[in-house]
Design goal:
This protein has 164 residues and is mainly α. It has helices at residues 2-6, 9-12, 18-21, 31-41, 50-70, 77-80, 83-89, 96-111, 117-128, 131-138, 141-157, 159-163. 70% of the residues lie in helices and 0% in strands. The longest helix has 21 residues, at 50-70. It starts with a helix and ends with a helix.
Amino acid sequence: LRCLIADINLVLGPSASYETATLDGKPFERPDAFYAIQCIAQDSKKYPHLRHLLVAFFEGALGTWVRFCAEFTVGGAIDKSSTTQREMAYMKTTNDDNEGALGTACTSLRRAPHMSLSHFNSRFMYKKNKTGTYIKNVLSPGARKGLSRKARVVDARGDERKRR
């Protein structure tokens, strides 16, 4: 990042390429997008602030990047940790589960706009946890009847009407 801050032409200049403009030196996933930005950058009259904005972005990212990378250096927290500690600290690298759940909620509520949030959550968890398989394989008819009775009691309380 320091090299890109010092010479923004490594990214926006006419001879810039993935070798000079990326941190890993690998080809662009979307070269068409890179070349479109590169063309825009050549028009300094129409986009006079583009170069300064990109430098400011890189400068802002640099501090966080340095802090982030320190954990991975030899002798850093991750290098010193045991396999067990790393397994305990594991977390997914993306927020796809939450973003996927939000997208599912939006889609479901678009299809059934009067569905309550608790009903959506119940349906979602039923499917995600494979509750139907559990009910079919484990619960007796009496236990199923008891669950239905409990669901009717919860429904009758009117929690969802109060929430609205």
